[in-house]
Write a structure and sequence with these properties.
Blueprint: E1 9-13, H1 17-29, E2 33-37, H2 40-46, E3 54-58, H3 66-75, E4 82-86, H4 91-99, E5 104-107, H5 112-123
Parallel strand pairs: 1-2, 1-3, 3-4, 4-5
Length: about 140
């Protein structure tokens, strides 16, 4: 459990520089520390083993996609909660994400407050339930 928003690290993994930058600004505006990665491989190599907080993970990326990144996190027993983001919102993608342990699946473009609520909920840094439903 995270003590406060200032203690929270949010790892943003997205291949789109504008999305990554926007999400990093949103995290900082909420008082969170944002660490960004342009691909799943970089996140896994640099931060996954010591990850605290949560991961905001794009599903559709070149190289390792978000589902493959989550699968590797699960295999390595890295218990950091994952919130998946994707423009592709179909039952199969949601089912696969849920099976791999995704805590929330949000469709792009993501609502800022819904994402912040989901982060607070999965990390225990906020008290209220999120304004969005977990993956079905």
């Amino acid at each position: 459990m995270v003590k406060s928003a200032a203690d929270l690290v949010v790892y943003v993994v997205d291949d789109d520089a504008s999305v990554r930058g926007g999400l990093a600004r949103l995290m900082r505006s909420a008082g969170h520390r944002a660490i960004t990665f342009d691909c799943g491989e970089a996140f896994l190599a640099q931060a996954a083993q010591g990850a605290v907080g949560c991961v905001v993970l794009d599903i559709s990326m070149p190289g390792l996609n978000g589902l493959q990144v989550q699968e590797r996190l699960t295999q390595a027993a890295v218990g950091v909660p994952v919130i998946a983001l994707s423009a592709r919102d179909d039952d199969e993608t949601r089912r696969l994400a849920r099976a791999l342990g995704t805590r929330f699946f949000l469709r792009k473009p993501v609502d800022d407050q819904a994402l912040l609520d989901a982060i607070d909920w999965v990390t225990g840094s906020g008290g209220a339930a999120p304004s969005v439903a977990p993956p079905r």
